[in-house]
């Protein structure tokens, strides 16, 4: 997990913010049913006044995360069904090793496609058009890249990262961490493929696929935009992963501000709970 620090940071931040969901519900419950709580509300206690804000932030976080998770699961399900209707026996590719495509789903499509599909049991899908375009070594490099995604269950990690970033919507840097996580997965898969097939084969496959006409919207977008392509080429040239672009000062400042405001709202809500919670009241009277 230490190598996957962007996802670890997202998990940590999400876990740290999760108790706020329960806290906001408790505060709103007290405000609706306890006389002491209503008095503090009328007196303008910060915790009572900010409770609706905390509830709103928490509600948006839950809705965003649920929406992203549901969309990811739905698209994965649809892609599974689409592939199931296109399955075909592996074509003859002239590979020296007959089992090179064993366990790989080959679909009859001219568009260049090589993608890892599935969350709990991921598998590799390639198009017949891509198989026909690549040389034997280049195809082996592509398959080695995708097998690295399979072993690490990167599709599941990507969905988790998107869900957590949506949950942490009030921290702009969460989206940057999600992007860094995806970048790290692609670079790690390229390093694995380079060890098995050589950097020349990986670079040849990457550049050849990038030069082909893009896949239609019906296909999953796997070879990402220019920035990620540049990072992958740079790693193949130098033999080490390039440093990611620094987070902008504006986004860092907004993240710090969002985190401080969230912490202050939570602290005010906890203060309100200590003043109104029945288990604390006897200690206050004594």
Descriptive notes:
This protein has one domain (2-285). The chain is elongated, with a radius of gyration of 25 Å. The two termini are 49 Å apart. It is 69% helix and 5% strand. Helix 2 (19-33) crosses helix 3. The chain is mainly alpha-helical. It contains twelve helices and three strands, in the order H-H-H-H-E-E-E-H-H-H-H-H-H-H-H. A three-stranded mixed β-sheet has the order 1-3-2, sandwiched between helices. The longest helix has 39 residues, at 46-84. This is Peptidase M56 domain-containing protein. Pfam families: Peptidase_M56 (PF05569). Residues 115-234 form the Peptidase M56 domain. It comes from Prauserella muralis.
Number of helices: 12
* Global Rg: 25 Å
Indicate the percent of residues in helices. Answer: 55-70%
Low-confidence stretches: 94-98, 216-224, 280-286
Shape: elongated
Placed side by side, the strands forming the largest sheet appear as 1-3-2
Listing every helix as H and every strand as E from the N terminus to the C terminus, the arrangement reads HHHHEEEHHHHHHHH
Mean pLDDT: 79
Largest beta sheet, briefly? 3 strands, mixed
**DSSP strand count:** 3
Structural class: mainly alpha
* Number of structural units classed as domains: 1
Report the β-strand fraction as a percent range. Answer: under 5%
Separation of termini? 49 Å
């Amino acid at each position: 997990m230490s190598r996957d620090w962007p996802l670890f940071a997202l998990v940590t931040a999400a876990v740290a913010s999760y108790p706020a969901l329960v806290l906001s519900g408790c505060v709103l419950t007290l405000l609706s049913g306890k006389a002491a709580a209503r008095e503090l509300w009328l007196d303008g206690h910060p915790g009572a006044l900010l409770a609706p804000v905390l509830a709103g932030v928490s509600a948006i976080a839950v809705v965003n995360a649920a929406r992203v998770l549901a969309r990811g699961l739905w698209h994965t399900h649809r892609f599974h069904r689409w592939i199931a209707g296109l399955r075909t026996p592996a074509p003859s590719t002239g590979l020296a090793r007959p089992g090179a495509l064993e366990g790989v789903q080959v679909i009859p499509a001219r568009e260049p496609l090589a993608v890892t599909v599935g969350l709990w049991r991921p598998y590799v899908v390639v198009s017949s058009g891509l198989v026909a375009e690549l040389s034997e070594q280049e195809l082996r490099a592509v398959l080695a890249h995708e097998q690295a995604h399979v072993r690490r269950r990167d599709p599941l990690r990507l969905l988790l990262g998107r869900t957590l970033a949506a949950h942490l919507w009030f921290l702009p840097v969460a989206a940057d961490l999600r992007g860094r996580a995806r970048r790290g997965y692609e670079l790690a898969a390229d390093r694995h493929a380079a060890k098995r097939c050589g950097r020349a084969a990986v670079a040849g496959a990457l550049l050849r696929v990038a030069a082909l006409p893009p896949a239609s919207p019906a296909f999953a977008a796997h070879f990402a935009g220019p920035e990620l392509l540049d990072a992958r080429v740079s790693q193949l040239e130098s033999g080490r992963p390039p440093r990611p672009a620094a987070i902008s000062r504006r986004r860092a400042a907004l993240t710090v501000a969002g985190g401080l405001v969230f912490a202050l709202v939570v602290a005010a809500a906890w203060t309100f709970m200590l003043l109104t919670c029945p288990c604390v009241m006897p200690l206050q009277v004594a």
